[in-house]
Amino acid sequence: MQVCKFVAPEIIFGAGTLSQVGKAARRLGASRVLVVTDPGVIAAGWLEHMLPYVEDEHLDYAVWSTVTPNPKDYEVEAGAAYYQRHGCDALIALGGGSCIDAAKGIAILSTNGGRIHAYEGIDKIKRPLPPMVMVPTTGGSGADVSQFAIITDTTRRIKMTLICKSLIPDISITDPLLLTTKNAYLTASIGMDALTHAIEAYVSLAATFLTDVQALRSIQLISAHLQASVDSMENLAAKDAMARGSLHAGLAFSNAILGATHAISHQIGGMLDSCHGELNAVLLTYVMEFNLRTCPTRYASIAEAMNINISGMTALEAGQCAIVAIRRLARNIGLHARLADFGVTEEMIPILSATAMYDACMATNPREATCEEIAALIRTAL
Ligand SMILES: [Fe+2]
């Protein structure tokens, strides 16, 4: 009998639920909140929209908005100093995965001290974190429900994966209306990131019956609605479906962990500061080909969830159909197809493959890989 556990934050989902943010922070005992956001979110008007809900609850706040995509170690440390300087006792992140991960990094340093690098890996955070309310604006990272934080080590030029239950936010507020200001490129790349989360979680060595149901529902929703969500900023039905798909994927991967796609894309993202979701969109199908023979029936179920008619096919054939369909989807929504498009070169492969072997996500990839095999996989995707 399988023994498993499943962790998740309190989740508030629905159009207009941004209005709950002040009440959520108040319920957690906050009195002075650090709001972590970024210039894109501010330009879209969402910070201005949110702050009255914080003020309604008579909460003091400070705003820190100098986060960049792929949040850096020095940014997190600057944010933590800002948090201390302003006497904050709780965090609200309003933004994509970068804002949410940066907020988690600030939370770690605010109660545990030291440098963020000390918390790389699994269960390195010893002291409890301050209350965290996360409001995702991009629909895809899953960081608002996950026990992960991904921070770039700018000295080693790699992404550090921090995994600990205390990184699960207290409250996650998903308001699909926030997805209506994202452009087509962001919608496409983040949507493919969410699909990658669901697929890697479904074939993960740590998958359970509790994560499978989340992963398969996510694959259904994203494969059915991503194209429509990319085609129109105002399609609320598609935004709602993508927000739900992303939430399901986040719950799946937070508990089942990920696989080789993320282990490799973290290294390329750390080295070249490239778009995480678009990198995954390229790598995912090559990793699926690498894994396919290890767990073909799992990939056949993925094909079925994508609404592919697999009757009469072997599991291998069905899995291959899923790979072809994902490549077609990525192309149709305008994403790159090769790693060379991001500036990856043959000379970078030895270091990328060597560092990928140490990424925490590699441990749950269904097929054990050698460094040479990962190098060959990257070369195939160049
Ligand atoms: Fe991801």
What is the beta-strand fraction? 5-15%
Helix segment tally:
14
Multimeric status of the protein: single chain
- What portion of residues is helical? 40-55%
Q: How many separate domains make up the residues? A: 2
CATH architecture of the largest domain: Up-down Bundle
Task: Write down the overall mean pLDDT.
Answer: 96
The biggest sheet amounts to: 6 strands, parallel
Low-confidence stretches: none
Any idea of the CATH topology of the largest domain? Dehydroquinate synthase-like, alpha domain
Rg calculated over all Cα atoms:
20 Å
Query: Given this structure, which CATH class of the largest domain is correct?
Result: Mainly Alpha
* Secondary structure tally: strands: 9
Give a brief outline of the structure.
This protein is an alpha/beta fold and 382 residues long. The chain has 2 domains: 10-178, Rossmann fold; 183-381, Dehydroquinate synthase-like, alpha domain (Up-down Bundle). It has helices at 21-27, 39-43, 46-55, 73-85, 97-112, 184-203, 209-231, 236-256, 260-272, 276-291, 296-305, 315-332, 349-356, 371-381, and strands spanning 10-13, 32-36, 60-64, 90-95, 121-122, 132-136, 148-153, 158-163, 171-174.
